[in-house]
């Protein structure tokens, strides 16, 4: 979407147009923005209350509402989360009120030989649900999935520096097929990394079912690839899509810095 200047502030009618398009498309890009941190925060709040940052070590030093996604180092330390989004996921599904939207503002993008790297790929959980056979929809209707931010790392023995915080995050439960709070569409709400079981079902039965349907979401027919430009604000719907980051740039020579915010958490149904 072009011709929108977020820094100038948006009237109610202009924002209503953006919000309606966002609800319809699930992923929306506002191109060519030049924002200060307060302007960005004010715009994000139009979509809902700002969510607490889980990994606070990577929060902006002066504006803690903003989470830094970056491969840049200062004094030998990552200023932001360098490997964010390396698996298919929806943001913060491990919370009891997952965010409505994620906003990512491209401050610096990695470039090689004039080509911008670091694409983000999205997959529609709503389209994936719509494409399921009716018997599969009936099978998962009413099922409740257990989400755990620590996920299966607890069993594999793979750990990162954030895992102590992850272990303290309680497990939460969400519908296998979530009803979108604004459009009413059904959306598959499972990912293999953080979904560890289904209530009332043995693990031997639950995990293969989760894996089978999670694998349908990123099929090519449900995908969209975003090609970044500096100044992009990309907004995505955490019920209606999953996303995956690419890491085709060299660290730390090809710098990448994004400001991320998550907003508008609500209970699932």
**Sheet/helix structural class:** alpha+beta
Average pLDDT reading: 92
User: What's the N-to-C terminus distance?
Assistant: 31 Å
Q: What does the main sheet amount to?
A: 5 strands, antiparallel
What's the helix-strand series?
A: HEHEEEEEEEHHEHHEEEEHEEEE
Low-confidence stretches: 152-161
Task: Specify the overall morphology.
Answer: globular
User: What is the number of E strands?
Assistant: 17
Give the strand line-up of the largest sheet.
Answer: 1-15-5-17-2
Q: Which percent band covers the strand fraction? A: 25-35%
Mind telling me the C-alpha Rg? 18 Å
Number of helices: 7
Helix content: 10-25%
Description:
With 269 residues, the chain is of the alpha+beta class. It has seven helices and 17 strands. The chain has helices at residues 12-25, 37-44, 125-130, 134-140, 153-156, 163-167, 203-214, and strands spanning 27-30, 67-70, 73-74, 77-78, 101-108, 111-112, 115-116, 120-124, 144-147, 172-175, 177-179, 186-188, 195-198, 223-226, 233-237, 241-245, 257-263. The chain has a five-stranded antiparallel sheet, covered by helices on one side. A three-stranded antiparallel sheet has the order 14-8-16. Strand 11 and strand 12 (186-188) form a beta hairpin. It is globular, with a radius of gyration of 18 Å. The chain starts with 11 loop residues before the first helix and ends in a 6-residue tail after the last strand. Residues 152-161 have low confidence and may be disordered.
